Amino acid sequence: MGGLLVELRKTSTLQPYPRNPRKISDKAVAKVAASIREYGFRQPIVVDKEGVIIVGHARHLAALSLGIVDVPVHVADLSADKAAAYRLADNRTNEESGWDFAALGLELGALKDLGLDLGPLGFDEAELARFGLAGTACAGRSRTTPRQATRFMSHSQAPAPP
What is the full DSSP assignment across 52-89? Predict the structure, then answer.
């Protein structure tokens, strides 16, 4: 199996799949944007040979909202029918996972103890409150600029220091 080839493409050139059955709320886009702003772009958007998005519609919308000009893209070498199936499978299969709430509480608590902003994790205040962590999400605070968020690391590069 060969390596995953990733290239940078202009965000504006990527085409959303017009019949995407997944609904992406403004709230979801904001959470993805906060994650990208904080941690950088870590997952490429997957497109077909024509530049139509197969996987990564929310990341695309988040990049547009942040004004990110170039995004990492993987061009999938899939037939049209396989691309259509993968589009559904990628969205559906992640719904099968659940949370181990005891472990989640420990992880969130450990991150809070390190002084990290829990906001970019995507949990809202009510969810954090269930773990006794209300008031620990500092929405909008980030150490990463949108320009830094466009930096994509290949698997061989070490992360940049904060």
Answer: BEEE-HHHHHHHHHHT--EEEEEE----HHHHHHHHHH
